[in-house]
Amino acid sequence: MFEKLGSLIVNRKRLIFSLFIVAIFSSGAIGTSVFGKLDSGGYNDPKSDSAKAFEYLTDVFKVKDPAVVLVVETTQGVNDPAVVAAAAKLETSIKGEPGVGSTLSYWSAGGAPTLKSSDSNSAFLFIYSEDIEWNNVQSLGKRIQEKYDGRFENLAVYASGTGVFAHAINTKIADDLKLSEAISIPLTFILLVFVFGGLVASAMPLLVGVSAILGSLLVIYLLTLFTGVSVFALNLITGLGLGLGIDYSLLVVNRFREELHAGKTVDEAIKKTVATAGKTVFYSGLTVVITLAALMLFPLMYLKSFGYAGVTVVVMAVLGALIALPALLAILGKRIDKAVVRKGALTPKEDGRWAQTARFVMRKPVPVVVLSLVILTVLAAPIKNIVFSQVDSRVLPASNPAAYAAQLITERFPGQEGNPIEVIIPGGASKIEQIKNYTQEIAKVVGVVRVGEPQILGNDVRVIAVHDMGPRTPAAEALIKEIRLIPSPDQTLIGGVAADYADTQIGIAKTMPWALTWIAIGVLVLLFVFTGSLILPIKAVILNILSLAATLGVITWIFVDGNLKWLVGDFTTTGSVDTGSIILVAVVAFGLSMDYELFLLSRIKEEHDAGRSNIESVAT
Q1: Second label for 100, Cα 20 to 30 Å away, from 138, 194, 458, 506?
Q2: Closest-CA residue to 408 (of 47, 71, 41)
Q3: Could you give the domains of the chain?
């Protein structure tokens, strides 16, 4: 198959490359429209009980979670007449802001004791969005924070809540991404010049990488017409597009040069390159695709989006390196070595440092294996301390206004009044006595601060239970599980932020065995087809699992245990890591490590099939 593809590329090189250029510009023209269509939410399980409870709250009870939570602080006490007047003026001003549906504060609620701090110097002002669509909630949070965070007459105002936090974390991620790209792209090009040895050859990976990114943007744009896609998928497209563009181009360009320097004509070199390096790129890409496709199995749109983006960008990178790049190389021919700045990079050396290292390792295999296993085990050891949670305000720098406001809420207010547990009993109006007994049992659960009176609307009943812990933490998950164990009226739904988090963790846990099975079977079968060996696929999977365990161990040691802040930057040690982020890191890391494993195995197998000894096949 690859021999025929090589011949086709040689015979139609100008047509193929022309179509490639047209595709790049078309993808760029249409694909860049995706930026206004992506979603910044998608962290919950849409089929869970908490999601059903949310639908009841919004559709039946017309209740929304506040988009913004303002902490209004004063040294005069919240009941001081001047404070009451200023607070009323503040609330009236906010009601006139576009996108604000309604407000509720300590003062407008008639001095509700649950809405003031324990020292009576601070109180809540909840702001509800007119539209509960996630992007609009975030936009409202941004506007309110920019206009009201700080001082309002004699009041100190601190903005927090879902909309403010979402805007703050998205802004922080975007700023960090711009900084990383500003540093990494120039350094990458310098490294490419060093590796490829010439300016012309160094441009090849950038061409493949850019084409993969633009092509992926087009596909993601088309996907947004049918389903939600997370804005963070763009980060993966950029990173993998450039990374795999470099990897695959390095393989193809180096093989093409090698064949030219061995005396082959340009056409012969292209055919040989596609048949060897091209085949490796195809199977390597397929390995990564199989691995990243596992993300689509999870119920969270956030993780699904990374699956869509990852699979798409890998396919685009493979197409660019397997078809477009050889066509360009066929056009360039020996001009690929123009503008050489480092001649030593033009050809691989069979007696170079890496070959010498490989021969040393194979002379002493047992000590090297033992030492490697010891190092991997030590690095993996901290993984036993890993604790999962979900992103909250503590991921922001402590100096961030949204993080400071969240800290004030934790310190000064006795419970999570803005994030209560919602108990919905459809058709419960005829079961009030049973519901009261049920809520009395909920009130006895450790961590529950108070339970409100049943609210009846038509045939349905709503009860809120306020707790005193972070709503997206393992403690909150345990609280929800304990409440759900209490015998309840039929059809009872438990909702709220804490229940949403618990259901998300449950959904991930239920999906995990299926995702792992998909990856294991898919990778093992693919490696067997590629190598024809039963042992090599098993060896590859085991070694990469060890490497992955070491990676997760290091992540735990740094971010859960709070080490190396001097190197990675200061951060708030929360004692946990975001579940979705760890799954993403694990899947991407495993896929890429298998990708590199295939790079090595393909060349080793080729050299061994050509008659070289096992040692020489590995070394060269």
Answers
A1: 458
A2: 71
A3: 1-36+197-346 (1.20.1640.10), 40-65+420-495 (3.30.70), 66-166 (3.30.70), 349-385+499-620 (no CATH)
Q: Given phi > 0 = left and psi -120 to 50 = alpha, else beta, which region is 447? A: left
CA atoms within 13 A on the CB side of 417: 22
pLDDT tens digits, one per residue of 572-581:
788 889 899 9
Cβ contacts of residue 335 below 8 Å, gap of 6+?
A: 200
Band of the pLDDT at 350, cuts 50, 70, 90? low
Q: How many CB atoms lie within 10 A of CB 251?
A: 21
Nearest to 577 by CA among 551, 595, 613: 551
Q: What is the pLDDT of residue 619?
A: 72
Whether 543 and 597 have beta carbons less than 8 Å apart is answered as: yes
Number of H helices, E strands in the chain: 22, 12
d(CA 422, CA 54): 9
d(CA 507, CA 592): 26
Please list the residues that pair with 494 across neighbouring strands: 423
The set of residues, in sequence order, having a beta carbon less than 8 Å from that of 187 and lying 6+ positions away, is: none
User: How many angstroms separate the CA atoms of 389 and 584, rounded?
Assistant: 14
Average pLDDT of the chain is 90
Q: Which residue has the higher pLDDT, 313 or 261?
A: 313
- Please state, in angstroms and rounded to a whole number, the distance separating the CA atoms of residues 130 and 135: 12
Structure confidence at residue 354 (pLDDT) = 77
Say what the pLDDT of residue 351 is.
65
Helix (H) or strand (E) holding 557: none
Q: Provide the 3-class DSSP secondary structure of residue 197.
A: coil
pLDDT mean over 98-110: 93
The pLDDT tens digits for 30-46 are 998 887 788 877 888 99
Distance CA 331, CA 334 (A): 9
Q: Which residue has the tokens 């206009």?
A: 147
The DSSP H or E segment spanning 450 is: strand 448-451
* % pLDDT > 70, the chain: 97
